From TrEMBL:
Binds 1 potassium ion per subunit. PROSITE patterns: G_TRME. Residues 218-421 form the TrmE-type G domain. It comes from Myxococcus fulvus. The keyword Oxidoreductase does not apply. Its EC number is 3.6.-.-. One of its GO terms (molecular function) is GTP binding. Keywords: Cytoplasm, GTP-binding, Hydrolase, Magnesium, Metal-binding, Nucleotide-binding, Potassium, tRNA processing. GO terms for cellular component: cytosol. This is tRNA modification GTPase MnmE. Residues 369-378 have a biased composition (Polar residues). (6S)-5-formyl-5,6,7,8-tetrahydrofolate binds at residues 24, 84, 124, 497. The lineage of its organism: Bacteria, Pseudomonadati, Myxococcota, Myxococcia, Myxococcales. Belongs to the TRAFAC class TrmE-Era-EngA-EngB-Septin-like GTPase superfamily. TrmE GTPase family.
Length: 497
């Protein structure tokens, strides 16, 4: 395969000015083309040795002085001969070098992802690792970097293999019993149990796809609630900059605003939205319509309620989020509730000598695990804890936050992370993509059919389903990926990768 591939060339670095820019060649003519650009290089250069060389144009005029690297097949990234010219990072200079490399027709421009595709086709990396290369290039948060790096070193690949190998062994056992019933007698005995165990493993991987998506594209969190609740003030506080306009006039925010932050390595896109109210003006109503649309597409909505909000109103605002999970908080908690209070708050306050709920971990608004900076068992004076000590017994405590003073904001951040992520750290995740999850689902479904067939049907049927499951799994690792699937995967890469 290596010897018939045409030689490809592309810039391996971004087409913007940088300290160094790299032109990379892969294929049988890589060295020849490379030496035309760097004639001072010996005909048989030492592999992996960095030569300082003059790069020249077709007329032999110097274009740059840079490093020349040769990797001899198969000990290279692609498994083919690879040559790199590491030049100064002028985009124009690199264009000239690229044009020169193409000039004699010995090499053609690489297609997107073609270097990595060759690494895959030449057996250097499997499909999940090739995908991790693209994930790493696209990573824009620490958790995305770490998860992709884990994928590159084989985290997902190994888990898929831990599924694929026993499944293949099972298939071989079943086929053995079917084809050589005498020799292989009994090899199918525990088939049902083996299938079940493998299916559980597949399901566990599928369950990680949600986290994979969060890590890959970051979480989306929107602040919403009635006008003037202090959403924009809180947004600015969470972002750490005065991004949103704040004013005491209700209806200040019209267009939703977004900002990207990184919390504990997790990328989070925060949205500030137009406040909701019953009788908005025309333009404001448009903003409110946008708020509703946005709420339907986020991972988590934060309902910011001003002090003294009546429960019936709170319920109404809650409903605006539709199916999106909501974390409800009491905003402007620095304001003395008594001055702005409505009846409900007074009723609750009359009971403020009630002991705090024993655990804030129950219910939807709870902070889980060590993420909470507030120990639920520590007794505290009323109004100093970010957790509302005055919540009626039996209801989950609500977080009290002030965007103005910053009170409760750290706890809110942890509560958001814990709701988005649950326990553990965002970095320790296998990046299961939608593509992987889809193939794993098909593998799991086939196993489920195999499992019932093991009770109700013939061994042929069981074995057939196990084979289907293997085929679906092979789409994850690449062992049975079709040309079309491989095309689709590598087209997402950038040129030069
Ligand atoms: N300059 C440069 N930096 C780069 C790359 C590159 O191609 N060029 N890479 C491109 O993505 C990444 C490094 N990936 C690489 C992966 C394998 C091999 C390689 O030569 N593998 C051989 C030998 C292994 C060994 O010596 O341990 C092999 O697998 O046989 C090289 C780079 C990131 N940095
Ligand atoms: N005391 C106090 N005042 C606050 C707090 N947050 C906001 N405010 C004030 O409340 C008013 C409204 O604040 P915004 O942050 O603009 O409220 P909003 O929810 O974004 O309002 P709209 O965009 O109009 O829906 C401003 O005068 C803020 O200074 C807070 O935590 N405590
Ligand atoms: Mg606002």
């Amino acid at each position: 395969m290596t010897s018939v591939s045409p030689t490809i060339v592309a810039l391996a670095t971004a087409p913007t000015a940088g300290a160094v820019g790299i032109l990379r060649l892969s294929g049988p003519a890589a060295l020849e083309v490379g030496r035309r650009l760097a004639p001072g290089i010996p005909a048989e250069p030492t592999p992996r040795h960095a030569y300082l060389a003059t790069f020249v144009d077709a007329a032999g005029r110097a274009l740059d002085e840079g490093l020349f690297l040769y990797f001899r097949a198969p000990a290279s990234f692609t498994g083919e001969d690879v040559v790199e010219l590491q030049a100064h990072g002028s985009p124009r200079l690199l264009q000239l070098l690229l044009a020169r490399a193409l000039e004699d027709g010995l090499a053609r421009l690489a297609m997107p992802g073609e270097f990595t595709r060759r690494a895959f086709l030449n057996g250097r990396i499997d499909l999940t690792r090739a995908e991790a290369v693209a994930d790493l290039v696209a990573a824009d948060s620490e958790s995305a970097v770490r998860a992709a790096a884990a994928g590159l070193s084989g985290a997902l690949s190994e888990r898929v293999r831990a599924l694929e190998e026993p499944l293949r062994a099972l298939h071989a056992d079943l086929e053995g019993v079917l084809n050589f019933p005498d020799e292989a007698e009994g090899a199918d005995e525990d088939a049902g149990a083996r299938v079940q165990a493998l299916r559980a493993q597949a399901e566990a991987l599928i369950a990680e796809a949600g986290h994979g998506r969060l890590v890959r594209r970051g979480a989306r969190v929107a602040l919403f609630g009635p006008v003037n609740a202090g959403k924009s003030t809180l947004f600015n506080r969470l972002v750490g900059e005065a991004r949103a306009l704040v004013d005491d006039e209700p209806g200040t925010t019209r267009d939703a605003l977004e900002a990207r932050v990184e919390w504990r390595g997790l990328g989070v896109t925060l949205f500030d939205t137009a406040g909701l109210r019953e009788t908005p003006g025309r333009v404001e109503a448009l903003g409110i319509a946008r708020t509703r649309e946005l709420l339907s597409g986020v991972d988590l909505a934060v309902l910011v309620l001003p002090p003294g909000t009546a429960e019936a109103d709170a319920e109404r605002w809650l409903a605006e989020a539709g199916a999106t999970p909501v974390l409800r908080i009491d905003g402007k908690c620095d304001v003395d509730a008594r001055s702005s209070a409505m009846t409900e708050v007074r009723v609750v306050e009359a009971r403020s000598d009630d002991s705090r709920p024993t655990s804030p971990r129950t219910g939807v608004d709870a902070v889980q695990g060590s993420a909470s900076t507030e120990s639920p068992s520590t007794p505290r004076a009323p109004f100093t804890s970010p957790w509302d000590a005055t919540s009626p017994p039996g209801t989950p405590p609500r977080l009290r936050v002030s965007g103005l003073t910053g009170e409760g904001v750290d706890t809110l951040r942890e509560a958001l992370l814990s709701r988005l992520w649950g326990g553990g750290t965002p970095s320790a995740v296998a990046l299961v993509s939608e593509r992987h999850a889809d193939a794993l689902r098909r593998a799991s479904e086939a196993l489920s059919r195999a499992e019932s067939a093991s009770r109700l049907s013939t061994l042929e049927v069981v074995s057939g389903e196990v084979a289907l499951s293997l085929e679906a799994l092979g789409e994850v690792s690449g062992t049975s990926a079709s040309e079309a699937l491989i095309d689709a995967i590598f087209q997402r890469f950038c040129i030069g990768k």
